[in-house]
Amino acid sequence: MPLVLYGSTISYFTGKLEAALRYKEIDYRLEPMRSQAQRGLIPQATGVFQMPALQLEDGRWLTDSTLILQWLDQAYPAYPLLPQDPVLRFVSLLLEDYADEWLWRPAMYYRWHYAPDAARLSRHISEELLSDMPGPVWLKQFFVRRRQRALFTVGDGVSADTQAHVEGIYFHTLAALEAMLANRPFMLGTRPSLVDIGFFGPMFRHFSQDPTAAVLMQERAPHTKAWVARMWASRGGQLQGELAPMLPQDFAPLLRDVGQAYLPYLLANAQAVAQGHKRFDVTLQGCAYRQVRASRYRLLCLEMLQHQFRALSASQRTELEVVLGSSGITSALRAILPARSGVDVATHSAFAPGLPMLGL
Ligand SMILES: N[C@@H](CCC(=O)N[C@@H](CS)C(=O)NCC(=O)O)C(=O)O
Questions:
Q1: Which residue, judged by its Cα, is nearest atom 13 of ligand 1?
Q2: Do the beta carbons of residue 357 and residue 74 sit within 8 Å?
Q3: Does the fold of domain 104-238 match that of domain 3-75?
Q4: Counting atoms of ligand 1 from 1, which one is nearest the CA of 64?
Q5: Domain ranges of the chain
Q6: How much is the CA Rg of the chain, to the nearest whole Å?
Q7: pLDDT tens per residue across span 293-326
Q8: Under CATH, which architecture does the 104-238 domain have?
Q9: Angle at CA of residue 12, ends 8 and 14, nearest 5°
Q10: Taking the model in full, what pTM does it have?
Q11: Which protein residue's CA is at the shortest distance from atom 17 of ligand 1?
């Protein structure tokens, strides 16, 4: 019996999980998570209104692609995604989290800001996911576009003042990936790992397929475009590759972004959650973001990273400091957080109720 993956053929996190299932050669079937299912059974089972959700043969449900990947790597150990080396493993978890949460804003911006993209994607969602709701497609499109912008672009800090910075996140990421993928087939070596899977999320279903972003990828980063196809085609049994023993030097620009933008954002978010603020202002890399949505889930992301960091031995942490260089990452990993998500990070798993990405 295949696993059943509920999601969408245009979803960031569904595509990310599919790449892992395909590489690990785990049999699965993709089912659209239609509005009826969302309103009823699935959020009841997973505790959260989000995709993807994975159902096992024995009926159990899993949510949150990050936790699902960690569970899959244990339950299906063939073709592992997480590196064995504890330091490389930690850096992989950090980069996967960054790709999930920090590339989300530019991914949503390119999809919903530009009219041709918004028209195409709102039509796709209306036909794929809202086909079980009454009403004409054009009306559904109107509401989808309005909802997505209110939740994820203009309603989450994207404005005329921040637009250039948001676009810069995409351009810098493309430049960093291109430098790596011009020289080797996968980000950490000659086979895929969790880092590839993390970046594949936004790069596949958003940046390589949404019209405006796809043209930019084609022009600026042809090796990255080829890697997207290579990742989708990768099967563990057909690849003989190896992971690099250490993090390659060309990760420095991504690590800088983690330290200068993503982790300062997570710390400002933690402060907002502590104060019970639904929105907050934060200046990142000189760009003033206003009215960004607070997220208890992203506080949990920071707690998880700190928990994984604390699990390293003293000598591994020293080794990690060397790998991370002057990126400024470890100070955020050691910071005392002003608030708690309320989730026990030591026992949290894909089987526990999930938290929505934005909101308290
Ligand atoms: N942390 C979750 C995030 C999942 C997520 O936010 N998925 C998006 C679609 S790609 C979603 O379902 N959003 C819900 C919404 O738009 O209300 C994961 O890794 O699975």
A1: 50
A2: no
A3: no
A4: 20
A5: 3-75, 104-238
A6: 19
A7: 999 999 999 999 999 999 999 999 999 999 999 8
A8: Up-down Bundle (1.20)
A9: 45
A10: 0.97
A11: 50
